[in-house]
């Protein structure tokens, strides 16, 4: 075989990389005292700034759950787990939460989302293969509006035009009326999960992303401004329960070779017991 023989490298020779992602589902806690002790002063200020009680509960529950899960791995009480949520656009603390200062050499990737009665926390890391590979994760859940069976409300026209391209809008329009809202939110959650995994959030135009259609396996098909985007994104559909739609995306490192074989393993769980356990004990004792 000559050194220039390009057939020499066979993708089967790359070790399989396993990315494990634990997805924890919870209902917002109704008693603020259950989560307030876990919040730092920045988080407390954000919490207090929410006008509506349900927004405060979703925010506080997500933070508590994320800190409980990360603290359990690191042997720290939740209040000692720091999440840096500095927005990379404006510097305010409403961006992607990144665990900082954990004793582990490879802190996991984290993503949070909340909507209606659902709070979801995704924790991802590589567990086999390219173990040093840093992945990031994005999760999104959206509640279907109560009137969703009546089709897409006209108030969504602007959002639809801004987030879906012509072809995607046509696909949603051709769905039976009762499925159009869910179809649109499937596109939305898939795109938002990708943009959360990349850390851009809604600062990036959703229309530039093309994702697979509702009913098909979730995939990023095209990204106009990032030609190699689809190669680095792996996606999964989640099961948030009736009345909700949710998606998850994992971003692989830049040097992910074309031949990388990636197995994305999703474990979905209810966080009910974790939160109930935490509620029964003083927070400082919740270590490991
Ligand atoms: C992040 C964003 C996509 C959230 O969408 P949403 O459907 O309203 O809310 P979700 O519950 O699904 O997700 C919110 C969570 O996403 C996370 N998040 C925020 N910015 C993020 C980013 N750039 N990348 C990844 N995750 C992000 C946070 O954990 C946030 O929850 P928290 O603040 O309670 O911790 C959207 O609000 C956004 O892009 N915001 C930034 C854009 C913006 O407001 N720019 C103007 C000021 S710089």
From TrEMBL:
<protein>
    <submittedName>
        <fullName>4'-phosphopantetheinyl transferase</fullName>
        <ecNumber>2.7.8.-</ecNumber>
    </submittedName>
</protein>
<comment type="similarity">
    <text>Belongs to the P-Pant transferase superfamily. Gsp/Sfp/HetI/AcpT family.</text>
</comment>
<keyword id="KW-0808">Transferase</keyword>
<dbReference type="InterPro" id="IPR037143">
    <property type="entry name" value="4-PPantetheinyl_Trfase_dom_sf"/>
</dbReference>
<dbReference type="GO" id="GO:0005829">
    <property type="term" value="C:cytosol"/>
</dbReference>
<dbReference type="GO" id="GO:0000287">
    <property type="term" value="F:magnesium ion binding"/>
</dbReference>
<dbReference type="InterPro" id="IPR050559">
    <property type="entry name" value="P-Pant_transferase_sf"/>
</dbReference>
<feature type="domain" description="4'-phosphopantetheinyl transferase">
    <location>
        <begin position="137"/>
        <end position="222"/>
    </location>
</feature>
<dbReference type="InterPro" id="IPR008278">
    <property type="entry name" value="4-PPantetheinyl_Trfase_dom"/>
</dbReference>
<dbReference type="GO" id="GO:0019878">
    <property type="term" value="P:lysine biosynthetic process via aminoadipic acid"/>
</dbReference>
<dbReference type="Pfam" id="PF01648">
    <property type="entry name" value="ACPS"/>
</dbReference>
<dbReference type="GO" id="GO:0008897">
    <property type="term" value="F:holo-[acyl-carrier-protein] synthase activity"/>
</dbReference>
């Amino acid at each position: 075989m000559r050194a220039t023989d390009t057939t020499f490298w066979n993708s089967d020779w790359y070790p399989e990389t396993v990315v494990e992602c634990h997805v924890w589902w919870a209902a917002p806690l109704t008693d603020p005292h259950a989560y307030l002790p876990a919040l730092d002063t920045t988080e407390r200020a954000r919490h207090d700034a929410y006008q509506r009680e349900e927004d405060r509960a979703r925010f506080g529950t997500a933070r508590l759950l994320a800190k409980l899960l990360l603290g359990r791995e690191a042997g720290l009480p939740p209040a000692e787990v720091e999440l840096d949520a500095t927005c990379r656009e404006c510097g305010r603390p409403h961006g992607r939460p990144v665990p900082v200062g954990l004793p582990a050499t490879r802190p996991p990737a984290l993503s949070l989302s909340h909507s209606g009665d659902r709070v979801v926390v995704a924790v991802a890391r590589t567990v086999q293969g390219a173990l040093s590979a840093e992945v990031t994760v994005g999760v999104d859940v959206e509640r279907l509006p109560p009137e969703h069976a009546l089709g897409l409300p006209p108030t969504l026209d602007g959002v639809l035009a801004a987030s879906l391209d012509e072809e995607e809008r046509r696909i949603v329009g051709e769905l039976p009326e009762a499925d159009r809202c869910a179809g649109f939110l499937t596109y939305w959650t898939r795109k938002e999960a990708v943009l959360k995994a990349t850390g851009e959030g809604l600062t990036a135009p959703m229309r530039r992303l093309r994702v697979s259609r509702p009913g098909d396996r979730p995939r990023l098909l095209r990204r106009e401004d990032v030609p190699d985007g689809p190669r680095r994104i792996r996606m999964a559909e989640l099961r948030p329960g009736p009345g909700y739609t949710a998606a998850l995306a994992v971003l692989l490192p830049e040097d992910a070779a074309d031949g990388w074989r990636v197995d994305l393993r999703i474990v979905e769980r209810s966080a009910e017991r974790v939160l109930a356990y935490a509620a029964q004990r003083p927070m400082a004792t919740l270590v490991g």
